[in-house]
Write the structure tokens for this entry.
Amino acid sequence: MKKYSEMSRGELLAEKEALEGRFREICSKRFKLDMSRGKPSIAQLDLSNEMMDVLNSDSYFLDETGTDCRNYGILNGIPEAKRLMGAMSEVDPDDMIIYGNSSLNIMFDAVSHAYTHGICGCTPWGKQENVKFLCPVPGYDRHFRITEYFGIEMINIPMSETGPDMDLVEKYVNGDPSVKGIWCVPKYSNPQGYTYSEETVRRFAALTPAAEDFRIFWDNAYSIHHLYDEPEMQDFLLEILAECRAAGHPDIVYKFISTSKVSFPGSGLAALAASRRNLQDIEHHLTVQTIGHDKLNQLRHVRFFGNMANMHTHMSRHAEILRPKFELVTGTLRAELGELGIASWTEPRGGYFISLDTLDGCARKVVAKSAEAGVKLTPAGAAFPYGKDPRDRNIRIAPSYPTLPELTKAVEVLILSVKLVSIDLYLEGGQ
Amino acid sequence: MKKYSEMSRGELLAEKEALEGRFREICSKRFKLDMSRGKPSIAQLDLSNEMMDVLNSDSYFLDETGTDCRNYGILNGIPEAKRLMGAMSEVDPDDMIIYGNSSLNIMFDAVSHAYTHGICGCTPWGKQENVKFLCPVPGYDRHFRITEYFGIEMINIPMSETGPDMDLVEKYVNGDPSVKGIWCVPKYSNPQGYTYSEETVRRFAALTPAAEDFRIFWDNAYSIHHLYDEPEMQDFLLEILAECRAAGHPDIVYKFISTSKVSFPGSGLAALAASRRNLQDIEHHLTVQTIGHDKLNQLRHVRFFGNMANMHTHMSRHAEILRPKFELVTGTLRAELGELGIASWTEPRGGYFISLDTLDGCARKVVAKSAEAGVKLTPAGAAFPYGKDPRDRNIRIAPSYPTLPELTKAVEVLILSVKLVSIDLYLEGGQ
């Protein structure tokens, strides 16, 4: 197949007519599919159903130190949950706080506390003149909404396969005291599925921030979320807390994890790992905010998974369900768009998303076009601060929720939309 | 028995010697009991154990609208949970948001959001000159810690059996635009067990606050927590939302409830009820903060309780366990201190606490004395803003957690301590 850019006007018009015929045919079937969020599928949820059996009315509800998990008490998590989540996050259990079901909520609260009370005794962000965050783009929309909500200025940092542009990150963080944080999804990043290289992580750990209250917001959401069992097919991420400690900057990072995509998205465990100094600072807030989180759910997770080896086995079952979906998407994109010169995309080995770049100025139109045929994608621009993709080209594909037959149809709609919008661009003389 | 104030020095010394002998005897037994918090007892927790059976791996995990409770989604609660909690709170289910396990966390977040973003478009509290809260005293220490944490000035308002001094409340709220809130535990109040009278509730609803962003923080923590089944032995509280609406001030109240002392203290449901305008304002925050709360736990509560009648029956089982404990405390206080003129106390018909007033200047000493004999009480002063009881006389008794034999010993220790500290006061020529 020829590149679209090399086609004559006549060839483009012929191609357009054929594609439009097929597109109308699909529209007539009134297909409906919401692919806007990274939701696990029903088959994946079923993998954890037996977690509902591990506690029953005859259970022993005490944690290993004898605390009754049904009652009040224990602000930072029962010891066995800290061990399990510590293993998942590759940190010392004493370097963690276990929260409720939402790591997003922990991040929001961390920003909120910094805004109202300041980090470790520093002036609250709400009382500082300028507060800025670095935002590797494309990135996770819900991160950006938190900083936008608090009126924090967001600065785009380009992403590559090895992570954010570290020259820029160093320039901003080490040079500008109003830069207070950076949002990172360091492994199987949202939406590209990139994993930060060892060099990138070491450069993060070696940062010498101009602001004492600068923190890396390290959202390790997909730490064990591989698509392949073979070790050589799995991405590896250096553990950031240890690197920061080794570099003499133990306090510059907050690390977030959750089991939202391990057990249940609505009813998992979320946790924060950080230096003792940071944890003390945060517990000082937390003790005013709540008496404690749901310890029965902590117990349920610990008794269901038992240990990290079982959790890895469990993740391998998730991968069995997810892998064919990712391969369907990337395989079809390769077959259908590979030679046309109108799109590029990532081929992740883990995580929940595929990032697709169209020709500049086409993403919004592609998303709108797909919606006409009943396929709801993440809004174009969502992966950028303020919802603004400067090149209007990025589309986040979330293949996890649909079944394979649904996904087959959805990908066809997406590809038809990309082709049709691109042809129109060429016909109008763009690119 | 004579009043201590009428005893001669000789009589007081003789009494003291006898009491000290008994006190030393108890100390020698190295009894240990923590009565500092209002924790349900193990027997009470056991009442809800079967809630652990209602969801298992074969369950149907959809809510009544077909939403899978295991997955992401639904910010403000599944409809059946809103109905159940609405019934518990006597409000329209549409006037509620269901949260996670902690109503304290909802209150903290409500204050935090008001501080960072302002209520319904008003200037954020953090950017206003003076922000004040009214604090009926004695009251709930954790309420006061929230406002203290945000640097909000707290003003003591005396409590009586009918509720806070409403003349003062009206003067402050209607006259001072820097007064932004009042902490209320309107039913079976913490620590007195008082219930606001109908007149008090109507006067609350009729408030015409000088500040547009004034809100009543109505913590209805003990709404269905009666000690007696007989209706004539139960306190009645007017429903505040309806009263405020009727008075033309639908927006002046946030109402909080939870099942912490219905199901499990660590794993219950908490909820906020308020006007639609307030709920919209809060959902605007909430949607940035989290994707949603634990819907499986909502489903668990709904399937366990089924309806409000069952929840009342359940509460009656709690009462069976709690009632003898309250009666043991009040009965012993009456028998031992009734004629001595050195203490007064409340005799609640519900809730979790009994409030004891010693002679002025004695509370700290009594708490310290009890600790010597192994009985840990709530710190004296805790029920007042900044931990300062101006008369140093109030002690909160939490009879729920100990077994009856433990409680018998603890009350003996408390009474001995009150007597010994009071005798010392008279011997030193005080009062």
Observations:
- The mean pLDDT of chain A is 97.
- DSSP finds 13 helices and 13 strands in chain A.
